[in-house]
Write a structure and sequence with these properties.
This protein is an alpha/beta fold. It is built from eight helices and 13 strands. The chain has one domain: Aldolase class I (TIM Barrel).
């Protein structure tokens, strides 16, 4: 697989939703980079060689007051990189249209999360179908949804309703401390996941321990406070800190290194070709 150099940037901790199943604590779902710090981040991105994908998320990316005034246009105007976004899709039609215009020709993936605690399936699907028509044909628009235990039928109905509108839907399993929640309806979950692994492995990659990985070199994550980590797994282990964007001391690795971790729950490195030998 060809490597796609990728940055995952948490542009805001703040979120306008408060989902009961959110894996981030309320204490963590706060804050965003101050205005004077944003140019420092974009300066660093602009210094990177080649073309990267900058995947912006939160919290809620659109909740940052400067997302449409400084962050998205700054990347497009001052760097050669492509952009993606993960959002709860609560932004107004006006702001979504503005984002589509700002990122015209540069948008890679638009990932919209469906949260039925704050919207209805019908309203969400109608908005999604409208927005897809505003995007360039090459943009990948995908809806992701947390499949909660005991609500397999609800998730299936969402999948089928969106599919009827020509919209791709992707299931996310419900995370709890220590891994994936238990699902009583194993058969229903297997049908929902299709060709994905079993319920305790879906949305979590198999072990890549010992395989060469480009995390920290051509892939890294940025927290809302500007701290750069080689990958999310390294951060969970208290390792892999590469510096801070706003302090100007980020140092990436020189090349790949064997993965030291037993499991890699984040799908992004594998999907972007960061792990050698994984198609």
């Amino acid at each position: 697989m060809t490597r796609t150099p990728t940055i995952e940037w948490q542009v805001a901790g703040a979120c306008n939703y408060d989902c009961s199943y959110c894996i981030q604590s309320r204490r963590y779902r706060r804050g965003a980079p101050a205005a004077e710090r944003i140019p420092r981040a974009i300066d660093f991105f602009a210094s990177l060689p080649g073309t990267w994908e900058i995947k912006m998320s939160g919290g809620e990316a659109f909740a940052h007051a400067l997302f449409l005034d400084a962050i998205a246009p700054g990347i497009v105007e001052r760097t050669p990189h492509r952009v993606s976004v993960l959002t709860n899709f609560s932004a107004s039609h006006r702001d979504l249209m503005r984002f589509a215009g700002l990122t015209r020709g540069r948008l890679e993936v638009f990932s919209a999360s469906l949260h039925l605690e704050f919207t209805t399936l019908e309203a969400f699907a109608e908005k999604a179908a409208w927005f897809v028509d505003q995007l360039d044909p090459g943009v990948r628009f995908v809806v992701n949804q947390v499949v909660r235990p005991g609500r397999i039928d609800e998730a299936r109905a969402c999948r089928d309703h969106l599919a009827a509108r020509g919209i791709r839907w992707f299931p996310q399993l419900y995370k709890v401390n220590g891994g994936i929640a238990e699902y009583a309806d194993a058969a229903g979950l297997a049908e929902l996941l299709g060709d994905a692994p079993g319920p305790r492995e879906a949305n979590t990659a198999p072990s890549y321990e010992g395989r060469l990985c480009w995390a920290g070199t051509q892939y890294f994550t940025v927290d809302k406070d500007g701290t750069v980590w080689s990958c999310r797994t390294a951060k969970r282990h208290g390792e892999g800190r590469l510096g801070n964007l706003y302090d100007g001391d980020v140092r990436l690795h020189d090349g790949p290194a064997p993965c030291p971790y037993r499991i890699c729950p984040c799908t992004v490195p594998a999907n972007r070709g960061m792990i050698e030998g994984i198609a």
